[in-house]
Amino acid sequence: MSRTGASRRGHDPARRRWFRSLAGGGEVRRPPWSGDDFLDACTGCGACLAACPEDVLHRDGGDYPELRLDTRGCTLCGACVEACEAPVFDRARSAFPWRAELGPDCLALAGIHCQSCQEACEWRAIRFTPTLGGPPRPHLDSDACTGCGACLPVCPGGAITLSEEVPS
Question: H or E element: which one contains 14?
Answer without folding.
Answer: helix 13-22
